[in-house]
Specification:
TIM Barrel, seven-stranded parallel sheet, about 230 residues, two-stranded antiparallel ribbon
Length: about 230
């Protein structure tokens, strides 16, 4: 939903899933990385865990360096809802500085319940077996999560590739329509390790047409940072 908007990314460690296409090192570490200047691509190390005071100071500093440039703070992972107890403390303070965008794999509906009142945008993934390669089907968890997120400016994203099936698209549509058919659905073409895209334009348009026959707002958006070579 916020593609093209500039954000401050707060990336948390660890995840409860192990998706085949994941391009993020989310293993737990005593050392974190901080971009030394917004948009510079140059990083400095800092000890973990970072405190709320330290994080707020960084956001304040970046806002002062680039007034009006950042639309929101995107909290991502890994899976950020693994830290729901901490986020329940963080979000009320961070939201005083910028709106909060939560990026999540859409499997932890109970954790979402404790923080959603402080979140302005939720980008929820649905994991397709064809691309994520998860060993178990997550449809029931995704349905529970979407019901919990409904009313919180939520959108759904799926990563689609050459092996994505019509039945998977129908299943995604089933989950969305069971909650609210007007929830936007984003199709993200699978990015391969060599930098190419793992789906043809013709096939992704076929999948979009299929989803659009049941949902009014279906969009195709690639990974922006991959295209720009950013982070």
């Amino acid at each position: 939903m916020l593609a093209g908007r500039r954000q401050i990314f707060v990336r948390l460690m660890e995840c409860n899933l192990d998706c085949r296409y994941c391009d993020t090192n989310f293993e737990k570490s005593a050392i974190g990385r901080l971009e030394s200047k917004p948009g510079s691509g140059a990083f400095i190390d800092l000890p973990q865990p970072i405190t709320l005071h330290e994080l707020s100071a960084i956001i304040e500093d970046w806002k002062s360096q680039l007034p009006g440039a950042h639309h929101s703070v995107s909290v991502t992972g890994g899976e950020p809802l693994l830290y729901a107890e901490d986020l329940a403390e963080w979000f009320p303070e961070i939201s005083k500085l910028l709106p909060i965008h939560l990026e999540t794999n859409g499997t932890m509906h109970i954790a979402l319940r404790s923080v959603k009142q402080h979140v302005d945008y939720i980008s929820m993934d649905m994991k397709l077996p064809s691309t994520a390669g998860c060993t178990e089907h997550l449809w029931d968890l995704h349905a529970l999560f979407l019901r919990e997120a409904h009313g919180c400016n939520v959108t759904v994203k799926i990563v689609v590739g050459a092996s994505t099936t019509d039945s998977e698209i129908q299943q995604v549509c089933d989950v969305i329509t069971s909650v609210d058919a007007t929830i936007p659905l984003f199709l993200q073409p699978l990015s391969l390790p060599d930098g190419t895209v793992g789906i043809t334009a013709e096939y992704i348009m076929h999948l979009q047409e299929l989803a659009s026959s049941r949902l009014p707002d279906v969009r195709v958006i690639p990974q922006m940072h991959r295209l720009l070579g950013a982070l």
